[in-house]
Every structure is written in C-alpha cells, then in structure tokens.
Amino acid sequence: MEEVQKYITELKLEGRMSENTIRSYAVDLNKVASFAHEKGIFSGEELTSDFLAEYIEKLKDEGKSASTIARNIVSIKSFCKYLCGVKKLKYDISENLKSPKVEGKAPEILTRTQIKKLFEMPESNSPKGQRDLAILNLLYATGIKVSELAKLKLEDLDMQIGSIEVRGAKRERMIPFDKATRDVLMSYLNEGRRHLITSTSESLLFVNYKGESISRQGLWKMLRTYAKEAGLDMTITPEMLRHSFAAHMVERGADLDAVQFMMGHVSPSSMKKYAKETKDYIRDVYNSTHI
C-alpha cells in the first residue's frame, strides 16, 4: 500500500517524531497493509471501519498484549488522519476504535545502596572509567533521558553553578546537579575526555571509544556490565536511574511539579509557572532533596 510508505516518508521529513516512534509506526502500518492485501485491499481509499475492526480482532486472537494493541490503534488513527488530510478518505474510519485499558507497570527503582555500588565500579583512573562515572552520576543526578544525554554539548554544561541546559524541540530546561557529580565531571573534562575525542573541536560532552556520539545500546551494555560487576542481580537500564532520581527526590519531600519540570514532564501551565520563577526555585528544591 503506497500510502503507508508516503506517510512514513512524510513523518521523517517533518522531524516531529523520534526515529523509534517512526519505526514503530512503520512496523505497525506495514502489517496492516499486509493484512489488507490478503483481503484484496490495495489502496488507502479502499479501507473501511469494518476492516480496521477485523484487524484489531485479529491481533486479539493472536494473543497480542493490551499495550501492543493500544500502540497499533495509535498508529492506525494517525494514518487515517493522514489519509483524510490527503483526501484518500472522506471521513475518519478509525474514530470508533477504542484502545484497551493498559495496566501501568510501576517503574523499577534502585535503592541508594545499589546506586552507590554501581558508582564504585568504573575505574576512576582510566579515560573510559572517568567517562562512565560521569555518565552514571549525571543520569542519576539530573534524571535526563539517554537521548538527551547523548546530545549534550560542552556549551550545555555550567560547571560554575553546577547545572546542565537540556535543549528540546519545543522547550529548554535547566537542571542542577550536586557537588559529587560536579567533581566526577571535572575529572572527566580535565583528564579522560581528551583521550577519547578525536578532535579538539569536538563539541559533544560524551563520546564513545571511536570519538563518536554515544548510543543507547552502548549505554545499556555499560550498565549491564557494571551491574554484574557490582553483584546486582537485576537488569539495570538508564531509565531506572532516571526513575530513581525522581522517586528519591519525591521521597525526601520535593515539589512534584519541580521534579516533573526537571524531567521534562510538564504541562503548559507548569512550564509557564517555572518560566517565571525557575532557576532559583528549582535549585532550592534540588539542593534540599537530592543526595
């Protein structure tokens, strides 16, 4: 179905969605197109609400999880909106599709003892170890996403006041970090980083052994290795450090809105509030609740 390929291409050109989201849409919609071909449907304008309902029933019969079905429905609804926009459909045939209730899984949280053990694993006298220790500290100290960490540049780092500036597509936010994180970052900047970069003009804060941007897979592998060395019988992900940052601050009485602001999970009203008060208040919350 050529409309699927055109839609995916348009998403890539728009640049509004992450690569992972676009890839997910492509997988879901290509499966819809394959099923449509089995039914003798070869064009987007031939799709019907009955066909979509039949496809969702097929997913249920195959034993797909509620979250998988919900994700497929999101992909389909987005595609149908596109088809309406390009006049392939007269009306939205997906409007009656209802997502199943997805039980939210509580995020896994590390204890402070587990985090301490993890931080003890990198070799502090090697360039890679200094980099890894800086990464671990920054993930836990700020709650930033892996994708955000990989894009951090030297100019985003303020060592004097101890903060990073995270630049998103729609907003920017300042996140403080503690003295311990500042110290390991300083060691990395003064010693380890110069042995990893391939050019003195490199602007990225963290690079891999090739001097290139760090990948999500590389960070996962690093965490798994250190978790095993620390004797932690669990699979640790960057997201767990992010969730631990939030949980530990809230446990110690941090303002939930301030924590959400630092993590980038904020409503427009919260953004407006913190755009006015911001940096001093956020730092006060951070200093009083993060260890």
Assign the CATH superfamily of the largest domain. Answer: Intergrase catalytic core
Mean pLDDT: 86
Q: Please describe the biggest sheet, giving its number of strands, its sense, and whether it closes into a barrel.
A: 3 strands, antiparallel
Radius of gyration: 23 Å
CATH architecture tag of the largest domain: Orthogonal Bundle
Order of helices and strands: HHHHHHHEEEHHHHH
The structure class reads mainly alpha
Strand order of the largest sheet: 1-2-3
Gap between N and C termini: 54 Å
> Number of domains in the coordinates?
2
How many separate helices?
12
* CATH top level assignment of the largest domain: Mainly Alpha
**Percent of sequence in beta strands:** under 5%
DSSP helix fraction: 55-70%
Q: How many strand segments?
A: 3
Low-confidence stretches: 267-278
Shape: elongated
Q: Which fold name corresponds to the CATH topology of the largest domain?
A: hpI Integrase, Chain A
Structural write-up:
It is a single chain. It is built from 12 helices and 3 strands; from the N terminus they run H-H-H-H-H-H-H-E-E-E-H-H-H-H-H. Strand 2 and strand 3 form a beta hairpin. It is mainly α and 291 residues long. The longest helix is centred in the C-terminal third of the chain and has 22 residues. The chain starts with a helix and ends with a helix. The protein has 2 domains: 84 residues, Tyrosine recombinase, N-terminal domain (DNA polymerase, domain 1, Orthogonal Bundle), CATH 1.10.150.130; 178 residues, hpI Integrase, Chain A. Helices cover 59% and strands 4% of the residues. It has a 3-stranded antiparallel sheet with strand order 1-2-3. Helix 1 runs antiparallel to helix 2, helix 3 packs antiparallel against helix 4 and helix 6 packs across helix 10.
